[in-house]
């Protein structure tokens, strides 16, 4: 059986304003109600696979847990990276973890932000590669190119009988003229960054080509500790790991690299124009997500997070409206969204990083409004979950229950609140919330005071 290793640490800034640092594109539930992360997890489940090893950003830990729970997909390990370290370290960490479970383990390394339309074709390609991986090959899955793309890396294969071909070279993202030549040459495929290998093969490759990286990763994994359903690593040791991709560290150096060409209707959905290409469209080429309307428009995309978005008399335009930001762009300029995000980051704007909804171990909170001395947010507390016992030095809170029944504790006094009932939390009072029921609790919280940031929280348990 194969250990899937799913890499979920990307940002996806070109899908701003829907994609943010704290809720990036792989977690957006815009594909038939599921996210790319969830679709990836489901794609690598079944009789051929073991529970997945998830490697993700510490900031996304509760989002990862929530989405795995939604699709009933328990993980073998959810390994939290204190910072981004490209793909080499995760590929090696997954190999070391899998080898602890099974000395003969195979791993399928896959990004979590790709869309695959023909999952049967992808599954067949994986099964085709199993024997080669067991024989000591590192197998990559090359996507048969359908157009001259300059945003993808390419793989050049040696010609032979197939269906698995030795790899001659990994080629950097080309210019348009070179990409056009590649598409016409059957020996070139897109590099999707998906690999199948034996754990022992990958560990040996690092021992040969990157021994210092192997040594540091071993030291870092030795610092592992459990935190709820997650596995944490020592930030200081992790920070010493070389920041390098698996392509540069191993694939361009090793001689035991093979490729399975496959045509699974693949897309990495790196921009809003790419999203437009895969969504269902009306007769005029328009596609909408949420409450959207089109009039006299063609080849447009509209997204409405809440409220209504109407597009009138426009062609080839992207309109994305979230609670706190609106993007309007020509489809040909979709790649430039990243530049806007960089400008917002340079200005210290929260819209670049923070999504209005923040996932917590107990559920989520979602910002509704905020001013100089107040914040209003909605909260959802999952059945059986409890917030930490806490107090604040600079703010008071007022709770109003919208639905469900919540148990509140304020300075040791415990009572139940049901729909339309409210409670006041004075300055400095120790308080907590608990959902003892079987349905989610939904409530509104109003914070008021001179300082409203999260670092005003004093936790007592």
From TrEMBL:
Key words of the record: GTP-binding, Nucleotide-binding, Nucleotidyltransferase, Transferase
Domain named Mannose-6-phosphate isomerase type II C-terminal: residues: 348-460
One Gene Ontology term from the biological process aspect of the record: GDP-mannose biosynthetic process
Signal peptide: none
Domain MannoseP isomerase/GMP-like beta-helix: start-end pairs: 296-344
EC nos: 2.7.7.13
Nucleotidyl transferase domain segment(s): 5-282
Catalytic activity: alpha-D-mannose 1-phosphate + GTP + H(+) = GDP-alpha-D-mannose + diphosphate
Recorded GO MF terms: GTP binding; mannose-1-phosphate guanylyltransferase (GTP) activity
Class of enzymatic activity (EC top level): transferase
Coiled-coil ranges (or none): none
PANTHER family with a match to the protein in the record: MANNOSE-1-PHOSPHATE GUANYLYLTRANSFERASE
Family under the similarity heading: Belongs to the mannose-6-phosphate isomerase type 2 family.
Protein name as it appears in the record: mannose-1-phosphate guanylyltransferase
